[in-house]
């Protein structure tokens, strides 16, 4: 894949010494985004610009301290400080609102949860070993820690994944041509937002959602009993790393092949074993060689190394894993700015 520079004109005009200073203070920006999200500043700011004093009264903070934080965020295009000292929304600050259709509020909170501040300073250790540092930090695995010791963080994780899935589901439904397809299976599909979007677009089609029991117990209301799509859906509690007892024309596997190599291999092998010859398998993943989103995906890649020892894929590594499992890989197409779809079929 040909790579191009991801440096913006503004960055290029800034001396390298200042750019590095700005980067090493990146934690300050992340902390300010987190604080703004937790305080609800973006939710409190309406269409009309407001003073720091007005916003401080709405979110119960110290006006001077809030002004300092908003000024710092404005340097990154998150809020705008007007000449008269009032603050207004920008495209990015609107995405910190909970009611925004493209809201990134919970994603912002998830990427700055308390455990992240413990883990990032140990990145050198993770790079030396190639393994997660989480067991050393907390004496247990990442997901065990979330569910046993950090219920608020687990809630943020669930909200972030739900928001992200709902937003990308529309893009997936728009991308995939399912003409003539009778059945589709969403493997490891979480609450089933992608499946629901596909079924709403294709009224003739039936679908199956497979994920862990505790996950599908909270499936999208449209898929559950009494929901608008329930009569066309089968919900299967299970672990795709163990078995995929599902027959379908098309299998979709989205953002679950990044935890570790063995889980990826087992999941892909299970799909090949379950599917009929010539069935279509669509794998959808973030890539670390995808130029438009590399700053985001490479950062997430390092976070995966820290918390679970996993990794984001390159185009080459994803094609390699799929081919190794026996899939015949065809087109690789962008879904949106941060996802790619790998089309494949099972061998005849």
Summarize this structure briefly.
By secondary structure, this protein is of the alpha/beta class. The chain has helices at residues 9-13, 16-24, 26-39, 41-44, 52-59, 63-74, 91-94, 105-110, 114-119, 123-129, 134-138, 142-149, 151-175, 193-201, 213-216, 261-274, 294-307, 315-324, and strands spanning 80-81, 87-88, 183-187, 206-211, 233-237, 250-254, 280-285, 328-334, 340-345.
Detailed description of the structure:
- This protein has 18 helices and nine strands.
- By secondary structure, it is an alpha/beta fold.
- The strands form two sheets. Strands 5-4-3-6-7-9-8 form a seven-stranded mixed β-sheet, sandwiched between helices.
- Helix 16 links the parallel strand 6 and strand 7.
- Radius of gyration over all CA atoms, rounded: 22 Å
Query: Mean pLDDT, rounded to whole units?
Result: 94
Estimated helix fraction = 40-55%
Question: Which strand order does the major sheet show?
Answer: 5-4-3-6-7-9-8
What is the element layout, followed by pairings?
Layout: H1 9-13, H2 16-24, H3 26-39, H4 41-44, H5 52-59, H6 63-74, E1 80-81, E2 87-88, H7 91-94, H8 105-110, H9 114-119, H10 123-129, H11 134-138, H12 142-149, H13 151-175, E3 183-187, H14 193-201, E4 206-211, H15 213-216, E5 233-237, E6 250-254, H16 261-274, E7 280-285, H17 294-307, H18 315-324, E8 328-334, E9 340-345
Parallel strand pairs: 3-4, 3-6, 4-5, 6-7
Antiparallel strand pairs: 1-2, 7-9, 8-9
């Amino acid at each position: 894949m040909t790579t191009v520079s991801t440096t913006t004109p503004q960055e290029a005009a800034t001396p390298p010494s200042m750019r590095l200073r700005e980067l090493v203070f990146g934690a300050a920006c992340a902390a300010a985004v987190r604080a703004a999200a937790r305080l609800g500043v973006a939710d409190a700011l309406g269409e009309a610009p407001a003073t720091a004093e007005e916003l401080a009264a709405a979110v119960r903070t110290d006006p001077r301290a809030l002004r300092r934080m908003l000024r710092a965020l404005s340097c990154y295009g998150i809020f705008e400080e007007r000449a008269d000292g009032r603050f207004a929304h920008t495209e990015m600050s609107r995405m910190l609102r909970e009611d925004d259709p493209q809201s990134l509020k919970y994603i912002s909170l998830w990427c700055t949860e308390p455990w992240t501040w413990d883990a990032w300073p140990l990145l050198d250790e993770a790079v030396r070993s190639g393994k997660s540092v989480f067991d050393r930090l907390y004496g247990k695995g990442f997901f065990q820690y979330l569910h046993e010791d950090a219920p608020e963080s687990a809630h943020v994780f669930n909200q972030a994944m739900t928001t992200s899935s709902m937003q990308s589901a529309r893009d997936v439904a728009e991308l995939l041509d399912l003409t003539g397809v009778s059945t589709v299976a969403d493997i490891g599909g979480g609450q089933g937002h992608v499946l629901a979007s596909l079924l709403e677009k294709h009224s003739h089609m039936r679908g199956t959602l497979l994920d862990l029991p505790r996950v599908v117990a909270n499936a999208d209301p449209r898929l559950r009993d009494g929901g608008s799509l329930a009569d066309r859906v089968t919900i299967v509690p299970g672990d795709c790393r163990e078995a995929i007892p599902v027959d379908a024309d098309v299998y979709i596997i989205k953002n679950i092949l990044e935890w570790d190599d063995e889980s990826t291999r087992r999941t892909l092998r299970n799909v090949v074993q379950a599917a009929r010859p010539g069935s279509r398998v669509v794998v959808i993943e973030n890539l670390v060689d995808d130029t438009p989103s590399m700053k985001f995906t490479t950062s997430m890649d390092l976070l995966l190394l820290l918390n679970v020892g996993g990794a984001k894929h390159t185009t080459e590594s994803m094609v390699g894993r799929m081919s190794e499992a026996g899939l015949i890989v065809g087109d690789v197409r962008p879904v949106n700015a941060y996802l790619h779809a790998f089309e494949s079929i099972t061998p005849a």
